[in-house]
Write a structure and sequence with these properties.
45% of the residues lie in helices and 24% in strands. By secondary structure, the chain is an alpha+beta fold. A two-stranded parallel ribbon has the order 1-2.
Length: 111
């Protein structure tokens, strides 16, 4: 289980490390937490809730500010992040047709 946790946190730690390396002070790094849905058809282990509780606690322990969060629920979110400005756009996909269209577009892009 430790390997799984380390693998899951490696990108987060790498991102924080890169920002610090480039001169960002810890007090200036902010986090936006989006996701952690429990979708119909997923195994009944409540993984979405466990994931968002875990990452919220981890970010807090790191001493980083959480500026907003959209966590939990039972719908898919699509997130667009613009690192130059810090802007985040969240799209809520509630209809099955929206989710299928998103998957098709991603598959076509990956090609």
């Amino acid at each position: 289980e430790k390997k799984i946790i380390d693998a899951a946190l490696a990108p987060v730690d790498a991102c924080i490390g890169a920002m610090k390396y480039l001169g960002a002070g810890k007090h200036r790094i902010q986090a936006r937490l989006i996701g952690g849905a429990n979708l119909p058809g997923d195994p009944p282990c409540d993984a979405g809730t466990k994931n968002y509780v875990f990452i919220r606690e981890y970010i807090t322990r790191k001493g980083l500010a959480i500026v907003n969060e959209d966590l939990g629920g039972d719908y898919v979110r699509r997130v667009h992040f613009f690192p130059q400005t810090g802007r985040t756009v969240r799209l809520v996909l509630r209809r099955r047709s929206d989710i299928e269209a998103m998957r098709s577009a991603e598959q076509a892009f990956e090609g």
